[in-house]
């Protein structure tokens, strides 16, 4: 991608798109410009057949310390309501392409919510997750009260959201908020490895698999199983299903064409 950005850097590594939040002085606080850039870059990767997974990361000190409080502080109810403040973040959860958050340091408020918008969270052992909005007299607004509760259950979510306390990586791992915890200096490399593995699969199958898992998050068991069954059937309309199964029978590696 040739676009230039003010608040992020964007690169590709093979079939993996990498978005790095880059507002170090503000601990990668999420302002509107950054949201627009991240969502735009992610949609660009999603539209590219050359990209099979997206990694979103920050710095060693902070993945992101939340929504930019300085930008938000003077807004009124009418402002946030009429501009659908931060509503564009929802587009990240709707991507076909699997997304991986590589988290070191603070992932607080909107930063924790951004990580949870991703399909997989790889956490460094320095990572600290939290929803401290209560300390500012507000509540989570990018899905935190919903996704955190589904991820860790009501008891822990209430604890986090009502006290604003931070949760270290080992607790987040125990509770199932994150997929893996690794030494902090290996967070990005691990995320890139996982992303490269996913990007090597059939892009059609991975997007349908992601849709099926997300349905478990959003619906009851009967509807979820029904959705999974019909998504499973639809994989039989793809060339990649023919190739994947032929490769197994012929004892060779599949050569997926992502169609
Ligand atoms: C704007 C922020 C910021 C934020 C940190 N900074 N977090 N600026 N918005 N969310 C800035 C600080 O003002 C400071 O800049 C610089 O980053 C370094 O921060 P320090 O506080 O000096 O660092 P430290 O003492 O190490 O403390 C780190 C911290 C603390 C624990 C992460 O910064 C903190 O509590 N930040 C706020 C976390 C938070 O409340 N997040 C939730 C936001 S609400 P200057 O220039 O002053 O030195 C939210 C709602 C989402 O996310 C929903 C919206 C729809």
UniProtKB/TrEMBL annotation:
Superkingdom classification of source: Bacteria
Catalytic activity: a (3S)-3-hydroxyacyl-CoA = a (2E)-enoyl-CoA + H2O; a 4-saturated-(3S)-3-hydroxyacyl-CoA = a (3E)-enoyl-CoA + H2O
Presence of the UniProt keyword Hydrolase in the record: no
Signal peptide: none
Lyase in keyword set: yes
Family annotation (InterPro entries): ClpP/crotonase-like_dom_sf (IPR029045), Enoyl-CoA_hyd/isom_CS (IPR018376), Enoyl-CoA_hydra/iso (IPR001753), Enoyl-CoA_hydra_C (IPR014748)
GO biological process: fatty acid beta-oxidation
CDD domains assigned to the protein according to its UniProt record, in alphabetical order: crotonase-like
GO MF term (any one): enoyl-CoA hydratase activity
A Pfam family reported for this protein in Swiss-Prot or TrEMBL: ECH_1
Record keywords, A-Z: Fatty acid metabolism, Lipid metabolism, Lyase
EC code(s) of this entry: 4.2.1.17
Record-linked Gene3D superfamilies: 2-enoyl-CoA Hydratase, Chain A, domain 1, Lyase 2-enoyl-coa Hydratase, Chain A, domain 2
Class of enzymatic activity (EC top level): lyase
Family membership: Belongs to the enoyl-CoA hydratase/isomerase family.
Role, per record: Could possibly oxidize fatty acids using specific components.
Name listed for the protein in its UniProt record: Probable enoyl-CoA hydratase echA8
Upper taxonomic lineage: Bacteria, Bacillati, Actinomycetota, Actinomycetes, Mycobacteriales
């Amino acid at each position: 991608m040739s676009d230039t950005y003010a608040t992020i850097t964007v690169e590709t590594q093979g079939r993996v798109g990498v978005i790095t939040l880059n507002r170090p002085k503000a601990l990668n606080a999420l302002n509107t410009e950054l949201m627009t850039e991240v969502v735009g870059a992610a949609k660009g990767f999603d539209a590219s057949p050359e990209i099979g997974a997206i990694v979103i990361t920050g710095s060693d000190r902070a993945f992101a310390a939340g929504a930019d409080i300085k930008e938000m502080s003077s807004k009124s109810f009418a402002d946030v309501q009429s501009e659908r403040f931060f509503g564009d973040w929802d587009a990240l959860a709707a991507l076909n392409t699997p997304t991986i958050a590589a988290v070191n340091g603070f992932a607080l408020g909107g930063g924790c919510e951004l990580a949870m918008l991703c399909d997989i969270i790889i956490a460094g052992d320095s990572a600290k997750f939290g929803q401290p909005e209560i300390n500012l007299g507000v509540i989570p607004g990018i899905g935190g009260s919903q996704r955190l509760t589904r991820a860790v259950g009501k008891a822990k979510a209430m604890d986090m959201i009502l006290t604003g306390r931070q949760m270290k990586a080992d607790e987040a791992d125990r509770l199932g908020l994150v997929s893996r915890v690794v030494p902090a200096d290996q967070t990005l490399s691990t995320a890139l490895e996982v992303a490269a593995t996913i990007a090597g699969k059939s892009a059609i199958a991975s997007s349908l698999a992601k849709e099926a898992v997300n349905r478990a998050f959003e619906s009851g068991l009967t509807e979820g199983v029904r959705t999974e069954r019909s998504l499973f059937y639809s994989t039989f309309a793809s060339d990649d299903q023919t190739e994947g199964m032929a490769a197994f029978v012929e004892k060779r590696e599949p050569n997926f064409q992502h169609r």
